[in-house]
Request: fold
Amino acid sequence: MTTTADTVGYGPLAGVRVVELAGIGPGPFAAMLLADLGADVVRVDRPGGPSLGIDPAHDVTNRNKRSVLVDLKAADGPARVLDLAARADVLIEGNRPGVAERLGVGPQACHARNPRLVYGRMTGWGQDGPLAQRAGHDIAYIALTGTLGMIGAPGTPPPAPANLLGDYAGGSLYLVVGVLAALHHARATGTGQVVDAAIVDGTAHLSAMIHGMLSAGGWQDRRAANLLDGGCPYYGTYETADGGHMAVGALEPRFYDEFVRLLGLDGFDDARTDWTRWGDLREAVAARFASRTREEWTARFEGTDACVAPVLSLREAPHHPHLAARGTFTDHGGITQPAPAPRFSATPTTVRGGPARPGADTAAVARDWDVPLLAGPREHQLPDPHRKASP
Reply:
């Protein structure tokens, strides 16, 4: 596929064309990640389309993209999207199963125009199964996989971990991995395919190590009873004197030794492997942390290998010296936001554009992708050189 002047040299996916059928949540985030990596992502917004309830100018998940406005329920709406799909490497959609087909832009219609196309589908329940047509959100998806039930203190309801675990970790990231793998296959064989990325599948997959530990008897199927779920007193969070919190992850022996020494605890050197003493250790650790402020404890553990860090807020995090030095966050268009990740030595990435405004790039995309129908009715469309003539 060809590329445009403003996408050249920005990331390892420069030159890859992606069509994103507008939605909310994991689909747009996956498309943002592809755009961050350099792909030319065209988001197909619909009139009065989905919204997060915020000003589109602040929707960071639409950064580095371009937007066209298409009414898929209009007579020529599907043809406009199919013309884009004919010139794309990837298409991403996040509708319920069967909706894209009813709109005329499902995999069969797209592959008829472009057999090499990677068609990525993002849903919570997947394309099949008893719940496939049911509505849902992140918290319901992760509830059924067992992962939500791992989180929180016993005797209290499991807390909602925002929508990071299901939507983005189990959903978006697995969609991107699938799309890139299928894109590699398409380039090697000339054949595209459908990628069925379901949040329930991805989130369950994230718990692979835990299932192995469960099978081996190294994990108890109850909350706060294990090494990594808050059951261990030297792997968890503690409140400080000023209402802040410190995170502790002193798992290995030498890290644990450093931790109890700097905390000023005597008599607990052997408590690391003696779970019968974990209750007493937890109380002692909590009492020590409660005796000083978060800032004081941060200074105490600074520069050590005790594996202790302050729990920062969203507004505090960008100012942490390490994250600031690495440029983990960046400012663009007046918005502080996470910088693209991961990093590449030969093809560095950047935030090269703010959130795409719905329909703002229709004329430019029509020109760059050679899709005249986007800019006007079909009677003004130029011949498509990639379309075979009817017999």
Observations:
- Residues 164-189 form the longest helix (26 residues).
- DSSP finds 13 helices and eleven strands in the chain.
- The CA atoms of residues 5 and 182 lie 26 Å apart.
- The longest strand covers residues 40-45.
